[in-house]
Amino acid sequence: MNDVHMNGVHIRSMTLWKQVGGWLAGKDPERSTLLFRREGGAMSSKKAISRNRIIEVAFGMARESGLASLSVRAIAEACGVATGTIYNHVPDVAELRTEVLQRFWREAIEAAELETCTRDAETALDYCRRLSNALSSSLEGFRTAWLRDMGALDGRTRQRTMEAERACLGDLHETVRHAFERDAAITSRARDCVQMDAVVDFAWQAMLDAMKRGDGSCETLFALMELALYT
Hints:
Number of strands: 2
Strand order of the largest sheet: 1-2
Radius of gyration: 24 Å
Distance between the termini: 78 Å
Number of domains: 3
Low-confidence stretches: 4-27, 32-46
Shape: elongated
Helix content: 55-70%
Oligomer: single chain
Number of helices: 13
Largest sheet: 2 strands, antiparallel
Structural class: mainly alpha
């Protein structure tokens, strides 16, 4: 392919030309403008870097300033590489934030020491109390900088981070379900009147919302569950 000049940018490769075509189609204008240097059109690559290192740097930045602070340009500067180098490992900022959120939840779950909750709980309600308190404690220090930003993210990023959150927390949700299935203390009247799966889903979502707000006790929720299920 012959060299192409567009708006003062010298493009030498078919690959880069196709990427610019994607920009012209409205796919990713920010990315396309950053793929080239103004002089010579060559991609800038200061040094090699791994995807894991990129996520590690992004995690540290998000921990200090929140998810909304993350941008490909900011991560590239922090890593000391060109913006195009970041895009070689992470296709867009939505995926970057999603990867960081997944690591956040993994670390929060590990810090909660949930095996203790499972071992010591006598009923499903007791397990929910212990689980809620443990997770709420492990979220301390993350909550202000991370969870406050969720509503400020763009729609695409919110959707992907919500999916990532469900994937990370799916196993915990299932442990709550199993606790209710095995709990012989729940009255037969309660089991006849309501579907336990619906109770589990409602309780889990209410617990999760409360933990994000910093209310690990969930006093009102657990009081209502005790009245409805055990009396």
